[in-house]
Amino acid sequence: MEQLLNIHIEKLPEAVFLATSDEIQGLVAQGRTLAETLEIARDVARKLIEARAEMDNIPSLKQVPNVFDLTSFLLSEL
């Protein structure tokens, strides 16, 4: 299945290209040429999408809130 993805490409002072995307968190690709950068970005996007699909099939753990009450705990002797 093909998907369209918006990619931001920037030419860095080090004479390399950097690709990122706001649509896929974690997508960062770097290459010496524009074509190489796009190829790497495509591979990274594919792997991130596959990993996310696998994670969706795994039951998620309950999120721990930032603040919670601890009702009981074990305190060892000092």
Plain-language structure description:
The chain has 78 residues and is of the alpha+beta class. The chain has a domain at 8-57. Helices cover 31% and strands 15% of the residues. The protein contains one helix and three strands; from the N terminus they run E-E-E-H. It has one helix spanning 34-57, and strands spanning 8-11, 17-20, 28-31. A three-stranded antiparallel sheet has the order 1-2-3, covered by helices on one side. The radius of gyration is 21 Å and the shape is extended. The mean pLDDT is 82.
N→C terminal distance: 62 Å
Note the total helix count. Answer: 1
Mean pLDDT: 82
Sheet with most strands = 3 strands, antiparallel
The assigned structural class equals alpha+beta
Strand content: 15-25%
Residue ranges: pLDDT <50 for 5 or more in a row?
none
Give the total of beta strands. Answer: 3
Strand order, biggest sheet?
Answer: 1-2-3
Residues in helix, %? 25-40%
- C-alpha Rg (nearest Å): 21 Å
Shape: extended
What's the order of the H and E elements? EEEH
List the helices and strands and how they pair.
Blueprint: E1 8-11, E2 17-20, E3 28-31, H1 34-57
Antiparallel strand pairs: 1-2, 2-3
